[in-house]
Amino acid sequence: MLSAFRKLPETKQEAILSAAAQVFALKGFHQANVADICHKAGISNGALYKYFENKQALFVGVFDYAVQIMVSELFQKNLDRNASVYETVRHIFEDLVALAEKQPELLMLYVNIGSCSMNNVAPPLSGKIEGEAKRFWLELVRRGKANGEINKELADAAVAYFIDNHVSLLAYSLVSKHFESRFMVYFGDEIGAMSAEAAIEIIMQSIRMMLE
Amino acid sequence: MLSAFRKLPETKQEAILSAAAQVFALKGFHQANVADICHKAGISNGALYKYFENKQALFVGVFDYAVQIMVSELFQKNLDRNASVYETVRHIFEDLVALAEKQPELLMLYVNIGSCSMNNVAPPLSGKIEGEAKRFWLELVRRGKANGEINKELADAAVAYFIDNHVSLLAYSLVSKHFESRFMVYFGDEIGAMSAEAAIEIIMQSIRMMLE
Amino acid sequence: MLSAFRKLPETKQEAILSAAAQVFALKGFHQANVADICHKAGISNGALYKYFENKQALFVGVFDYAVQIMVSELFQKNLDRNASVYETVRHIFEDLVALAEKQPELLMLYVNIGSCSMNNVAPPLSGKIEGEAKRFWLELVRRGKANGEINKELADAAVAYFIDNHVSLLAYSLVSKHFESRFMVYFGDEIGAMSAEAAIEIIMQSIRMMLE
Amino acid sequence: MLSAFRKLPETKQEAILSAAAQVFALKGFHQANVADICHKAGISNGALYKYFENKQALFVGVFDYAVQIMVSELFQKNLDRNASVYETVRHIFEDLVALAEKQPELLMLYVNIGSCSMNNVAPPLSGKIEGEAKRFWLELVRRGKANGEINKELADAAVAYFIDNHVSLLAYSLVSKHFESRFMVYFGDEIGAMSAEAAIEIIMQSIRMMLE
DNA sequence: AATGAATGAGTTTTCATTCAT
DNA sequence: AATGAATGAAAACTCATTCAT
């Protein structure tokens, strides 16, 4: 079943996953329309069902695709840098902003699984990305403690979780209207419209305070 | 239209809103079944459409109801206390946990509007609760600065936003499986299952560090 | 579910069951089109699913309806007659022919469950009608033995089964083209077209020979 | 078109016809899945349509194949025997039982065309096998009358039809669940489960009574 | 000759909403 | 005011058949 999909030319795989990601991101799983996705992807309805058993399997495939890109664009890209913890985190924030501009649908998929209406499907999906994130943060925390950037008395997992929370928060802020309008409630007076740079600055401040 | 609803006996209004809250919370807006809600509420399908113009209007009504209870149970209840900032925040956390046990559907509704699939309806709903929250936190921050509990150099809005983030985070952790499983990725080894107390402790720690 | 159906005015129940019987009879279960049935019955697609859980449940309902009419038109109608066995059987044959003219779809439904493609649903359906038939035939056989019409050495069940076979055979001959053309292979030369009367005569002969 | 099929190696022809016979028998014409058949036969979907114009043509081909085997295994095999009518019939019954064990799908195909949902395709198919059967029975009846085994006053065609009915009945009983459960309604008390031997005995009895 | 990926019309089933009673 | 039966459009999924390779 999935093997049929893997045999397709990369560009077609891309087209399908990207189309599906956009529709799922925008409409959510249930409201997403399979025919819509097929049309956007330029394939027939029947073809899709040769590649994925059903809508749910397609969703899982799309989520895997999103996770893979997110991990690559956020973590792997920032893995080897000899940068300080703050610099690394800031780079990731910047990459996140770039990703939110280029492929917001990927972040939206991630945000959507936080909804309680996804409670029955979320856990395995969550695991896929959070496992990768944790590994990255823990390594960074170790480096930060070695550098003296991070207070050695703080528990590693707690710091990793704390950073992850802030990255998540930024991701949510970048693509969820609820988070955007929540941000504006607090900073709308000072800042005309929510800018990613402003959000980053505010979140970086939180982190700096916490870790020193 | 809505006036017809307001004329109903309070218990019936309650029954309808509570039934709808549960179904919307569990299934999400699109997957929620109107007939299901009516059945749970003990009214006829037709009756519902005398009280609310359509499913969407019902959802808004239900969200208002949820906001009202959340504001009352979390903020108004903790308004007059002469307690310290930390104590107040902790009390709110405890009340949040209690609410998550008694009426998890209310928090779930709140969590669900964070999803990007709700982007087109979220902003007015977000405003309703976040406005109340902001007012409360700003007052608390002023008190904290007066007390010397909060560093006076920090911007009020930033601190308020920071606290609100953590309260939201706890709310998400309590009802969203994604957040629960994310929490477990980080603390699953130390803590057998996610306990509200553990979550509170970890979050309180973040706040204390930040504010001093 | 079914109670909703039973609450309908009799004429509407009739319209639905009759429409469904015709379509199922003509096309078979799988090829029968639910929308077709609804259209023929003068109801909406949605309505049907208020009365029957799904296509299969509708089929069972229709089969029950067919059995009820068949039992009533063939057996109950010929129950009290003080007639001889032969006369009774002949009457049943004649009623069968009349039924095949008025509502051939009922006999067709019965014939269709004999197909191996119905093997997984047939047994419970078979039981419904064959149980009634057996009871009737056994009573008739007892009467026949008392009358001296039936050889007392023959086993009751065997005779009942034998008669039932011939009634079934006539039913099949009246509505199945395979059975009709099979009949014509044997008697096409003598008889221009298959006539019910001719079929009855030939089958009656078999029975008479057997029983004496 | 069909010539392409005939040019295939015998084993491949066999594989295709046998696979198709099994699927058509089990599922019925409409529910049978062409891709399934191809897979079972070890050929590609496209290949099938080189050999047969469409599903219907394949079905006809398969039915011919089934008829050919049935005629050979039941009639030709019992043609030259110098046996009595009863013995011949009994042998045919036994061969039928053997066939039902080795290739039940062939009998099932035969049984399935009795269904009214096959009314539009049945007649030409019926003719193919019933013509052969008639010829065989008429010859047997002539022999039986010459032997004195069969009452000379009985019409040849009627006797032939009568015997054919019973052979059909046995075939139906062996592969159709409806007929099996119908048999059990009558004899379930005496006989634990339906055995082919018991069925033969009961049917033979009918025939003997009839013909003497 | 053979493949098997692709098509797209067709099917069952659901459900927000209406309206006669 | 309240009911709940009825609607019918929409949506996921299937499959016989075709055709480029």
What's this, in brief?
The structure is a homotetramer of 212-residue chains. The first copy, chain A, has 212 residues and is mainly alpha-helical.
Describe this entry's structure for a reader.
Four copies of one chain form a homotetramer. Chain A is mainly alpha-helical. The first copy, chain A, has a single domain (63-211), classed as Tetracycline Repressor, domain 2 (Orthogonal Bundle). Chain A has eleven helices and no strands. Chain A has helices at 2-6, 10-27, 34-41, 45-51, 55-75, 85-102, 104-112, 122-147, 156-175, 177-187, 196-211. Chain A is globular, with a radius of gyration of 19 Å. The mean pLDDT of chain A is 92. Chains in contact: A-B, C-D. At the A-B interface, α2, α7, α8, α9 and α10 of A face α2, α7, α8, α9 and α10 of B. The first copy, chain A, binds a DNA duplex (21 and 21 nucleotides) through α4.
Domain module tally of chain A:
1
**Rough outline of chain A:** globular
Low-confidence stretches of chain A: none
Gyration radius over CA of chain A = 19 Å
CATH topology of chain A: Tetracycline Repressor, domain 2
CATH class of chain A: Mainly Alpha
| CATH architectural group of chain A | Orthogonal Bundle
Largest sheet of chain A: none
Quaternary structure state of the chains depicted: homotetramer
Distance between the termini of chain A: 52 Å
Biggest interface, residues from each chain: A-B, 54 and 54 residues
Kindly report the average pLDDT value of chain A.
92
